[in-house]
């Protein structure tokens, strides 16, 4: 067939690539926080927070595809709900 490197070489190469990716991600994990540089981020966050706190799945904003907003609401429910169940986070206050 051909001269392919042994599987161990592939695993080592993949491990090095993943280690480099993890290193770069952890190095930049707080890049520019708490500042927001994209002008749409506050708008998206307000919409997602309103959907999260009210439970209303209608974003009332259709300038962009809504899947992004729905995925963010689901992620918020998982994070806040899981954190509340584990006692790490207080319950989300809908009045806030």
What class, by secondary structure content?
mainly alpha
User: How much is the radius of gyration in Å?
Assistant: 20 Å
Helix content: 55-70%
The mean pLDDT is 85
In the predicted model, the low-confidence regions spanning at least 5 consecutive residues are: none
Give the SSE order as H and E letters: HHH
What's the end-to-end separation, in Å?
65 Å
Helix tally? Answer: 3
Strand coverage percent = under 5%
Outline type:
elongated
Largest sheet: none
Number of strands: 0
What is this entry, summarized?
With about 100 residues, the protein is mainly α.
Question: Which secondary structure elements does this structure contain, and how are they paired or packed?
Answer:
Layout: H1 7-27, H2 41-54, H3 67-85
What can you tell me about this protein's structure?
The chain has three helices and no strands. The protein is mainly α. α2 crosses α3. The radius of gyration is 20 Å and the shape is elongated.
Give the key terms.
96 residues
């Amino acid at each position: 067939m051909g001269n392919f490197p042994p599987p161990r070489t592939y695993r080592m190469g993949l491990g090095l690539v993943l280690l480099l990716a993890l290193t770069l991600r952890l190095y930049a994990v707080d890049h520019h926080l708490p500042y927001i540089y994209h002008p749409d981020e506050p708008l998206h966050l307000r919409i997602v927070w309103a959907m999260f706190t009210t439970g209303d799945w209608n974003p009332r904003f259709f300038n962009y595809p809504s899947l992004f907003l729905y995925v963010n609401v689901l992620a918020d429910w998982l994070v806040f709900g899981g954190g509340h169940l584990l006692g790490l986070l207080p319950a989300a206050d809908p009045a806030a």
